Amino acid sequence: MKKIIFALLATVLLMPVANAQTAADSTANSDENRLRQMKLADLEKEKKRVEDQEKFKLKQALNEITEKQNRKEITADEAQKLKLEAAKEAALNIDNKLAIIENQRQLVERGVNYTFQFDGGRTLEIGIGNATDDNGSAMIGLAYQNRRKTVPYDKRTTSDVLFASGLNNTFSGAPLGESPFTLLRSGYAELGLNFKTRLLKDDNFYRLSYGASLQIQSLQLTQNRIFVPNGEQTSFETFPFDLKNTQMRIYNLIFPVYLEFGKSDKRESYDRIRYSTLNHVKYGIGGFAGLNLGNAQFLRYDENGRRIKLQDYRSLNPSTFVYGAGAYVGYGPLALYMSYNFNTLFKNGPIDQNLVSLAARIEL
Fold first, then answer.
1. Are residues 340 and 254 in the same domain?
2. pTM of the predicted structure, to 2 decimals
3. Which of 199, 185, 290 is nearest to 243 (CA)?
4. In this structure, what DSSP letter does residue 178 have?
5. Is residue 105 part of a domain?
6. Which of 89, 178, 204, 328 could cross-link with 337 by S-S, CB 3.0 to 4.6 Å?
7. For the chain, what is the domain count?
8. Does a structural domain hold residue 16?
9. Does residue 237 lie within any of the structural domains?
10. C-alpha distances in angstroms, 324 versus 10, 191, 287?
11. Based on the domain organization, do 77 and 161 belong to the same domain?
12. Interior/surface letters 329-344, b for 16+ CB within 10 angstroms, e for the rest
């Protein structure tokens, strides 16, 4: 009787453990099956990719042979012989690669995980901007790739990180030498995301360039003066101490739109068509519009032997809406950029002044 009782207790106590183990085994088998199906689907896609790639290579080889025949570099008989050899090589390449894929498929179906890849070296990848455009992206040294991502055959819109830096001043009708701002200490900076869309179906000569940018424009007054807000007006007043450095910064969010044009190279592969402007001159003309995000004034001066740094975030009454025209000319990712603000610098300033900027810009 005692043996029967102990047997029943053991059965009851071990049943949850057995059920948990059965559930875990079931989950593991389900995951393995799912992974196996994904590998089999990838191998089927690889078959088509191999055939498409070899057919594209054969097409290129046949075109090159035909061009040589047209240039009288080879005879018609020689061209025919070369075409047959190219076709045989393509067929052998397809047969050999498909055989490898078929063997790999059979191993996967039997649950054998075997992949041979010879790695004779090491690589270090450093990227800035849109370095791996089709399968991922890269920015400021960090990169990612998604090799399972489907690559579009014809990509009409691309994206880049835009950075610009240069000089800033104002135009009020007076000569540049009479400007109230120093030239070399008044700067311009811009950081944003830029898109380009090809406007023609089969030609990349015209592109629409557009995006969004953070724009920082700094100005430094001459003659030891600072910016002083008086209600809704802003004036330039002499500072009582010797200024070592002074600067007003204006922060804007702008949305530029430019018509860009220039030659580009068409790069064709078996599974994609891309256009590159890397080795060509480009031109752009257009404008921008946006909103002012705020301003700040930075002062550095000596008072009674003490070095003082002051940051003043009071509103200096910059124009709320900013808009203007711009143009650039460049080569590859680099360009020389110039812009003119139609809005005045201040809502109510001593004189009407419009910002003019000259900068070097780069598309990363």
1. yes
2. 0.69
3. 185
4. G
5. yes
6. 328
7. 3
8. no
9. yes
10. 85, 17, 6
11. no
12. ebeeeebebebebebb
